[in-house]
Design brief:
The protein is mainly α and 205 residues long. It is built from 10 helices and no strands. The protein has a domain of 140 residues.
Length: 205
């Protein structure tokens, strides 16, 4: 049994339904060409209802990245890793998500470049976490770390005495830049991430 009310659960389910609708619709349609009405119609809500949950279409991408960060937190909670292994798992998980939803991740990066969305991901409400992970109540109230916080924590585990900002910048360049290279050159994102990380850690160790 949950401590959440029916109204809270319904609102969280609608947010998740919107994201699932976007996943389905962008299999064949480009995100930028997709109308809010099409997303709303896909799950049987009105456009007005959509805007009760998201201020604009691009905000679904922020929500998607909030779920990405939540998934990583749960992975770390269930199977703790440290240092380089933990960082490589972040990129492995991200590559898997990119392969599932390539258009969305490419548009997420594009929306960051054009300042249509802020770089920080949405925090995910407790009730959304409950719907996604009903058997992991320990994570409902924990602050979800940002991508930078995740990377800096694991870099410090490799060498706590170093200032890791330069390495963090290289990791961020890899994280975002390889998505664009993969898309434009039709290259495997997992392969690109692995090669980039090999170069970064070769110079770090």
């Amino acid at each position: 049994m949950s401590d959440f009310g029916k109204r809270e659960i319904n609102k969280a389910q609608t947010r998740l339904n919107v994201l699932d609708a976007l996943y389905r619709l962008t299999i064949k349609s480009n995100f930028r060409d997709l109308k809010v009405k099409s997303i709303a119609d896909e799950i049987g809500i009105t456009e007005m209802t959509f805007f009760n949950y998201f201020n604009k279409k691009e905000d679904i991408l922020k929500y998607m990245m909030g779920i990405w960060a939540l998934d990583l937190m749960v992975l770390q909670h269930n199977q703790p890793l440290t240092g380089e292994d933990a960082i490589r798992r972040v990129f492995k998980h991200t590559a898997q998500q990119i392969k599932k939803h390539p258009r969305l991740f490419t548009n997420f990066v594009a929306s960051l470049l054009t300042s249509e969305i802020a770089p920080n991901a949405n925090d995910i409400e407790e009730v959304d976490r409950f719907l996604l992970y009903p058997d992991t109540p320990e994570i409902y109230k924990i602050k979800i770390p940002s991508g930078n916080e995740i990377m800096l924590k694991h870099l410090a585990e490799i060498d706590p005495s170093n200032d890791h900002m330069a390495t963090l910048i290289h990791l961020a360049s890899c994280f975002y830049g390889d998505v664009i290279v993969s898309h434009t050159a039709d290259l495997d994102i997992d392969m690109l991430y692995t090669k980039s990380l090999n170069l970064i850690f070769q110079n770090t160790n």
